[in-house]
């Protein structure tokens, strides 16, 4: 049975038991036929035997408190806007294992697929995505309040100055790798031998600056090729006139279409035998590329999807987390990591800053808790007689304490890494030259640096040798007085 079908059956079993929860002993055969589930499983769940998905695994790498601490650490980083990678999660798990390991030899480590199993046990809202690098200034500009204020100012200016679509223009630049084609579907009777289209990219880039209006108009581009002089050949192919980020109308659909059409033209020229697509070819084909790219519809869609014209700020703002939503998310009790499935296993989703001492280390705390729980087991009847479920609540508190202790270790390790990075970034660097040109091995560079350092020390010692002694300087000073 696949995991999907297994989960669906377990959901039906839970639904069936919920419908007969007031009966002392339901008819399991009839109930199993009614909901289309296994009678044996239905009976087992009724008598309190857990499903395989909620049963504690026998080969667990991390303890319950370690895994919960790891989840809280992940949640904390996610709320801070720095979600961890699989590698970071694995490194933190190995850190916890090494921190608590007291036996001989090497501590256990996470296997190759452990992190994928861990991520699979997280609540459904956690998904794995691919982050793309972005300039620091661009990331800082993605602030809900600032973007909202920008749209408010834009709306005021449009109304106050009676701005029309023909008055709204936006300029942006994009870069082309000359001769770089793209994947494209073809129809062939020889699929094995027709998988490639030959082309020779020069790897030279050309920057193109385009300007479009909200009305759907476009003006001639500004082309910035690499070179020291202008070539007459470039200007044979120019055409007659009229032929950044999340708020840039050009950065969306228009520039995507621009690159798409360019790649198809490179492929077309290659199929015609022009394998070496150079700057001359680029200038020759640019007019047709722009005609196919910058249609009135494409340009207007670029303005529309950025919410600028027609003015619709919510198109952008709805994609961003508002301060109110972030605050409510931090206050609300979020999902918890489902490991055993019991209700008492839940712990608050928001990390705490309360200190956990004494004892001062997780290992010592675990020893104390193990002793306490042995005592609890020996007087369980007395505790539960005084207050029903007291022994279980004490164990829950103990597990929570261990979780918070493990979480504290993870935070300390993270802060140590941040501090080390900041120290490296703030360290004063030298601009002295080791060697003017040519290849240089690391050991040779270190040898040259040491030689220069030793020479500087020898010069300093030589200067100190010819300085008058301190007592002589003081005597001269007193005689002058």
Automatic annotation (TrEMBL):
Keyword DNA-binding assigned: yes
Pfam (any one): HTH_Tnp_Tc5
GO cellular component terms, A-Z: nucleus
Keyword Mitochondrion in annotation: no
Name of the protein described by the UniProt record: HTH CENPB-type domain-containing protein
InterPro entries, alphabetized: CenT-Element_Derived, HTH_CenpB_DNA-bd_dom
Transmembrane segments: none
Family matches, as PROSITE patterns: HTH_CENPB (PS51253)
Keywords (A to Z) from UniProt: DNA-binding
HTH CENPB-type domain: residues covered: 54-128
Domain of life (superkingdom): Eukaryota
GO molecular function per UniProt: DNA binding
